[in-house]
Design goal:
By secondary structure, this protein is α+β, with helices and mostly antiparallel strands. It has one domain. 45% of the residues lie in helices and 17% in strands. The model has no long low-confidence stretch (mean pLDDT 92).
């Protein structure tokens, strides 16, 4: 089973504040996993968000 991260853990990894993670979840910017009242993000979905945000450098 894949590792699930809390918004606190995602914030620690990325440096993006917890309220931003909550707002993005409410706006459905990434898939979420609901466990009762708790909301988690799959580690692979966090990795995809990071990879999709990478802008390649210009060739010299």
């Amino acid at each position: 089973m894949e590792k699930l991260l809390s918004f606190e853990q995602a914030a620690e990894i990325t440096g993006i504040k917890i309220p931003t993670w909550r707002a993005w979840a409410n706006a459905r910017k990434f898939p979420i996993v609901r466990l009762g009242r708790r909301i988690k993000i799959r580690e692979s979905d966090l990795q995809k968000l990071i990879e999709n945000g990478i802008i390649p450098g210009r060739a010299a």
